[in-house]
Amino acid sequence: MKKNLHRFYVPQKNILDNTVIFPAEHANHIKNVLRMKTGDYCLVFDGTGFEYELLLEKIFPEPEGRIMSRYIAGTPDKTRITLVQALAKGDKMDLIIQKCSEIGVDIFIPCKSERTIIKLDQAGAVKKQERWQKIAQSAAEQSHRITIPKVEPVTDLAAVLNEAKPGQMAIIPWENEKTTSLKQALNGSEARDIIYFIGPEGGFSEQEIAAAQKAGVLPVSLGQRILRTETAGIVVAAILRYELD
Length: 245
Ligand code: SAH
Prior knowledge:
2 domains, elongated, Alpha/beta knot, seven-stranded parallel β-sheet, single chain
């Protein structure tokens, strides 16, 4: 496999016997941004674990390539990781979604919480979700993931807490937690499905932590230092992947 080739996600239906026809939205990127030409090679993957090496035979109106080889791109991760991220200001959400997609978060649930600062109306929230989904896809393409992480619609913390899933391990890093560390919580854990909650810049309120606990979510400490919201989300993703896979 040539790791230095451009790599694109293409839905399965676009992969035919010997040819891949790219969805039209790839055309501008491939032609004008990457300036790829017929005769160039690239990689595509379909989210099921297969990857294809292509020889581009057409660029316009939609790029098309001949399949030169097909192989299994990797093995699925053992553990599914979901990040419930309280909306953070500015472009921090972009950063969190990009980095956590590289590291291996599978599902993002952006949520409003008591101390969320940014205001999003319904239309704004849908726009953001689309933008974040694209960021997750680009990060997955670039980092040679075999699947695309899913960005769920913006919701409320309470709604996520109401939907606890059986068999899922749930943790909420909280800077005021003094007894249980993340390390202890994970010690010997065989969790195959884990969800973690990260608060906004101002953190979670005592009431939110109490509600989370009532819903079966375990507060954990990440250590003596207070991490920024974007740092906390990324750091926990890396720790979970390291510990559980
Ligand atoms: N309320 C805090 C900062 C919140 S940090 C303050 O203003 O002082 C943002 C989020 O990162 C928190 O809600 C928590 O989920 C996580 N976090 C940061 N540092 C942490 C730590 N040492 N232990 C546990 N969680 C932490």
